[in-house]
Amino acid sequence: MSLLCHNKGCGQHFDPSTNFPDSCCHHPGIPIFHDALKGCTVGPHCAEKLPEAPQPEGPGTSSSLQEQTLTAIPKSAEALLRERPKSELPPKLLPLNISQALEMALEQKELDHESGAGIDSSLIRSGSSCQNPGCDAVYQGPESDATPCTYHPGAPRFHEGMKSWSCCGIQTLDFGAFLAQPGCRVGRHDWGKQLPASCRHDWHQTDSLVVVTVYGQIPLPAFNWVKASQTELHVHIVFDGNRVFQAQMKLWGVINVEQSSVSLMPSRVEISLVKADPGSWAQLEHPDSLAEKAQAGVGLEMDEEESEDSDDLSWTEEEDEEEAMGE
Predict the structure, then answer these.
(1) 3-state class of 10 per DSSP?
(2) Alpha helix locations (H) across 98-141?
């Protein structure tokens, strides 16, 4: 009579009269779900069904897998709005990425002109900072023009994490150390007044990312900074001609600051904010922030029409096409 062997890894039919101690090659341990593997132990065939091995408790159990599946489901906008961190960490500087097209535009600009020439000292406000990169002098009066200005005439370069000036080529990984590098040329101070700029700006999102775009001509990396905490965004962008765009907002949802970054291009600045939880934001700013701006008289519309006397730095479709060809 032929019987079926129930040893793991065997599954053969055998004759009990010829069932010797070395007739069966099987796995005595827990199955690894691969029937093609041969056994590792030699012994007699077994006609009785073996008890099922207990499933180990741990991250591989079905209950924990169900919990992981549930946590991976995108949360609603209302849930994201409620789940905000209770304690706020101070905002951090987001890394700046310079496009090749902007590097070329900066290199073509004449940065070593006679700075400060032709500016009426009566129009310079006391306490104004020198606008030349690398110089930290502050205007105290006409006598400040007599002090030398040590600055960087070149353009900033960012490549594979390394940061340097094209004029002196000293490379560093730390952005703060890059900004603190002393200038390599001596010239005249530039006390040029920074003027507020009205820039067209908007935003879009994916399930895991929010992108805030500010449109303007030739952002200057040496003077730009964007800071962010988990729920706040602080923007300070200086465009060509000392035009400054500034914004501060409380975000609708929570972001991952460490994974967020800023990209500078000839006609726009893109701020990429990685969401802490996947899902859709109902809007960019928190309702409380919008209410505060409404009380202060600040416009809420991202794409509102600018007044005729404002310094409009918005881009055109033709310029955007030229930039895309340059990139």
Answers:
(1) coil
(2) 100-108
- Report CA-CA distances (Å) from 258 to 5, 218, 275, 325: 58, 26, 11, 31
CA nearest neighbour of 228 among 202, 207, 249: 249
Closest to 202 measured CA to CA, from 215, 220, 216: 215
Lowest mean pLDDT among 118-127, 221-230, 297-306: 297-306
Contact in structure between 41 and 8 (CB atoms under 8 Å): no
Torsions phi, psi of 114, nearest 5? Answer: -70, 90
pLDDT at 7 over 90: no
Using CB atoms within 10 Å of the CB of residue 270, give its burial: 0 to 12 exposed, 13 to 18 middle, 19+ buried.
Answer: middle
Q: Is 322 helix (H, G, I), strand (E, B) or coil?
A: helix
Per-residue pLDDT band for 10 (boundaries 50, 70, 90) equals confident
Q: Map residue 68 onto helix, strand or coil.
A: helix
Radius of gyration of the chain measured on its C-alpha atoms: 33
Q: What is the pLDDT of residues 237-279, one digit of tens each?
A: 988 877 889 898 899 889 999 999 999 999 999 999 999 988 8
Contacts 24+ apart (CB under 8 A), 70-73: 72/278
Sign, CA torsion 179/237/326/211: positive
Residue 284: CB atoms within 10 A of its CB come to 21
CB proximity list for 243: less than 8 A, separation 6 or greater: 194, 195, 196, 197, 216, 311, 313
- What is the spatial distance between Cα 325 and Cα 327, in angstroms, rounded to a whole number? 6
Per the CB < 8 A criterion, the answer to whether 281 and 80 are in contact is yes
Which residue has better confidence, 196 or 215? 215
Which has the minimum average pLDDT: 81-85, 101-105, 209-213, 218-222?
A: 81-85
Helices (H), 186-309: 287-296
Q: For the chain, give the percent of residues with pLDDT over 90.
A: 17
